[in-house]
Design brief:
Length: 220
């Protein structure tokens, strides 16, 4: 246990799990989409569904989707701000399997028409875990620079990605590989010790079999 576990995050309450964590889920979903959110469906599971309204979980998710951080004093006004910015949103309930009780599924669309589905859990103390992206199982927090590569499950892709990062002196702290079916759609999640320059990201996006490259760095 460290000091953060005892003190908790700097936040607008009332709950680090139902409010601060929910803001981070929305914020990271917006980052993963890569552009402002114009439409959002927020489906709440478990404790989020049971007590989320009282804890402001719905307002917190919208605040994150608008780009707010957990300590933003405008979180309670997020519905009004979303309306003024033209962001449509709706809330519902969903029953998910094998996830934490504080979990939400967000289905979002961006101004360019991009779509994204994220399932994420709030673990307490403002910490979160991204459990699925577009139906593919994942397991990362987004706390460090993270590269997510959606690709066809073909030989050589892992080597191409790791070699390219090596050329730019980016150290891989952890790497996880996921896929929906054997030989099908695959996702690589690489958490890194350093920020990733724009050049290798652009290079990866042009390689055969790479469907989408997403870079998540909360410090940018």
């Amino acid at each position: 246990m460290n000091l953060f576990d005892v003190m908790g995050p700097i936040m607008v309450g009332p709950s680090s799990s139902h409010t601060a964590g929910a803001v981070r889920i929305g914020f990271i979903t917006r980052k993963l989409l890569g552009e402002p959110v114009t439409d959002a469906e927020m489906l709440l599971h478990g404790s989020f569904a049971a007590t989320g309204e009282g804890h402001g979980t719905d307002r917190a998710l919208v605040a994150g989707l608008l780009g707010m951080n957990p300590d933003d004093e405008n979180i309670p006004k997020s519905f009004d701000i979303a309306g003024k910015q033209g962001m449509k949103f709706r809330t519902g309930v969903i029953a998910l399997r094998n996830v934490h009780p504080n979990t939400a599924m967000l289905r979002v669309s961006g101004k360019s028409g991009k779509k994204l589905e994220v399932v994420a859990s709030s673990l307490g103390g403002g910490r979160i875990r991204i459990c699925r992206i577009d139906g593919i199982e994942t397991n990362f927090s987004g706390d460090c620079p993270t590269l997510i590569v959606h690709n066809l499950d073909q030989p050589g892709h892992v080597a191409q990605v790791t070699e390219l990062l090596y050329q730019y002196s980016v150290n891989i702290a952890s790497m996880q590989l996921y896929r929906n079916v054997r030989g099908g759609y695959a996702v690589m999640v690489l958490e890194c010790d350093q920020p990733i320059p724009a050049e290798p990201l652009a290079s990866l996006a042009q390689k055969d079999g790479i469907i989408k490259v997403t870079y998540l760095n909360l410090d940018e």
